[in-house]
Amino acid sequence: MIDINQLKNNEQFRARLLERAPDLDVTKVLELDDNLRKERQKNENLRSERNVGTAKIAELMKTDKIRASKLVLDMKVVGAKIELGDRKIAKLENQIFDMLAKFPNVPSSGVVMGYKEANKVVGSFGKKPEFTFKPKDHVELCTSLGLIDYERGTRMSGSGHWVYIGSGAMLEWALLNYFVDFHTKNGYKFVMPPHLLNYESGYAAGQFPRFMDDVFFVQRGQGTKFDPKAAKFLAPTSETALINMHRGETIPGDQMPIKYFGYSPCYRGEPGGYGASERGTIRGHQFNKVEMFIFCNPDESTMFFDELVKNAEELISGLGLHFNTVALAAGDMSAAMSKTCDTEVWIPSLGYKEVSSISNAICYQARRANVRTKIAQHECSDGVCRKVVKTDYAHTLNASGLATSRLIPAIVEQFQNEDGSVDIPPVLHKYMHGITKLTPQ
Asked: How far lies 67's CA from each of 59, 300, 427, in Å?
């Protein structure tokens, strides 16, 4: 949720927002806000009038009961006007809330406008593999190596689903163990959140109400009218849960930063097996991911954004894979984010595919989740210094660390051999129960 005071009073803020989303009806929101302030002032005046009248009635009851009775009737009219004003205020507040809830975050300075074509590679790591033979694609390799059963996954659940089996399941779990060890050593706290979340969790993350069609809702009972605010949905990423770890809380500044990493399967309503570039496990309805998440004081989020980028890059570099880091243009970022970099791994048969998205939401999610921080500051004037505690919204950041469903295609394609075997990255050996090479079955 953006700050309406910034929208109203900060011309640069408003211009950046409209550059990102030119169709936003900012004028309408500001008109509603102006009407809201006028209605609140009218009701304040009416309440003051009623307070004076109530005190006057008490005095008149001792000296002039007829005038007191007339004034009682007058105050009932004032009371009715106050009730009407309260209803108008509530209606305006709801209208403003509903409109602002759909507004995206304001891009940070330095984020370029535009869409995917304006994205910029800001780092390249490792080298593309060079093959002396005709390389196979990941679907052929995962099938011949017996890692993934695509046919039975589709039979069980429809398109966009697959089954990890044998060494494929072990490789998937080895990646997750590698991520867990990495983040634990870096001082992040492990969280395994619920898979079923409520509407408030989706709203706090910035996914609702705009993107409700992207998730799987679960509703108990049949024949009842569907109400998203009463139903649960399957987490599309553990980020959605982690922002809600401190929903409604005020965190002392000296307890910041709070660093989590969460594991969960991710459930998404996007199509799987959609065209040549979406084959195999590239895009599906369910996949595994570890997510980093940080709550911090407002002046620290730029520093922690750089930390999250570094963590994602180190994880992929540790696997020995070639990849790029890409700064996203405003139009290619998630609506809740102010700045985003993607790490895109090289899959020879497909090109570059994102495996981690690193984002700074600044105070956008914290406003929606009402997560605040108390910051102690020293203010000095006239030679006297005082300790002042100020309350502000926290900043939140998140990053995939990492998603697995595109890493396995990258591993089998980048590390394949002419005989159809695949070398497992050395960093995963200790999790593979003695398996260091995958061989065709």
From this structure: 10, 64, 90
